[in-house]
Design brief:
alpha+beta, single chain, SUMF_sf, four-stranded mixed beta sheet, 10 strands, globular
Length: 330
């Protein structure tokens, strides 16, 4: 990981090429070592539990966490339990969510360099209150390994477009699956619920935001200020998905990983205005019509998308890395 900042974008990223929207030049840009495990060969002899400890240790440098997660993806990651995914318990609460209308302009201004437009942020307003029952949310997004089991068991077509030629990327077993449709994410949750007898589903928008923020009004899972090293976003990330949990400084107050970056995450809701708000017909609504809301940033996008209040969706281009995580009704 570098400490450099990508060039500013300024224009609406949906009007640019994918590389330009990521703030990258046409020439090759290196964000990591040529050989990922160089300098970390001792990890090849480590036991899986020891590798998990390295991967999720914020005191370890990113290169070593990344290397440990990569080895886990090759030898078998004990955090991947397809029929019993690790979950965080989130208590029932009455929570304040959304953004004050008077803050829309300031938020837009802070992220103008990333091409953010005011109507995108206006979708976050106004602030509203929601009564949430207790629920559980997965500590990690659904991985390639888990999604493979789903496909093998169901025979579904519509393979993730990130699987080149539809071939399972075995070296990325513990990376989040992307890009899948919202209907496929729903089908995965329904399949796992039927297979296990548990009430798996996608989180609602309100549940996702509460799980990411802890309900205290923070801007990011870790606090109010954007920290490039806390999430896999385009600012300093490796420009590719990473193994689950290797950005431990970005955990939410409930201990949930990867809510701010790696891949965007569908929730259960289609876009609608918040109570007391107005429908925003931004470029996503105009081009896609009714669309499923996604939350959280990704390796292809700037940190504005990693804000816990940010509402977006699948603008059907490769730069939109769409994944999902599970919730469960106790």
């Amino acid at each position: 990981m570098t400490s450099s900042t990508p060039p500013v974008v300024l224009a609406n990223p949906n009007t640019l090429t994918d590389r330009a929207a990521m703030g990258l030049p046409d020439a090759f840009v290196s964000r990591g070592p040529q050989y990922l495990l160089a300098g970390h060969r001792d990890l090849l002899a480590a036991e899986p539990d020891a590798l998990v400890a390295v991967a999720e240790d914020p005191a370890e440098p990113f290169a070593r966490r990344h290397a440990a997660g990569t080895v886990l993806g090759l030898v078998g990651d004990p955090r991947i339990r397809p029929e019993d995914p690790p979950m965080a318990d989130v208590p029932a609460a009455r929570v304040r969510l959304g953004l004050e209308p008077g803050e829309v302009g300031a938020v837009t201004g802070r992220w103008r360099h990333a091409g953010v437009e005011e109507e995108w942020i206006a979708k976050e307003a106004p602030v509203y209150e929601a009564d949430l029952a207790a629920f559980r949310i997965a500590l990690y997004p659904v991985t390639n390994a888990e999604y493979r089991l789903f496909l093998e068991d169901t025979g579904r077509t519509g393979l993730p477009t990130a699987w080149r030629f539809g071939v399972y990327p075995e070296q990325l077993a513990n990376h989040p699956v992307w890009t899948v449709t919202p209907e496929a994410a729903d089908a995965y949750a329904a399949w796992l619920a039927a297979r296990t007898g548990r009430a798996f589903r996608l989180p609602t928008e309100a549940e996702w935001e509460y799980a990411a923020s802890g309900g205290d009004g923070r801007d990011f899972p870790w606090g109010d200020d954007f920290r490039p090293g806390a999430a896999n976003t385009v600012e300093e990330g490796p420009l590719a998905t990473t193994p689950i949990g290797v950005f431990p400084a970005g955990r939410s107050p409930f201990g949930v990983h990867d809510l701010a970056g790696n891949v965007e995450e569908y929730v259960a809701d289609d876009y609608a205005a918040y109570p007391g708000g107005e429908e925003i017909a931004d470029d996503l609504a105009v081009s896609q019509g009714v669309y499923r809301v996604a939350r959280g940033g990704s390796f292809t996008r700037f940190g504005d998308l990693a804000r816990v209040r940010r509402r977006h969706g699948w603008y059907k281009r490769e730069i939109y890395a769409m994944g999902f995580r599970l919730a469960e009704t106790p």
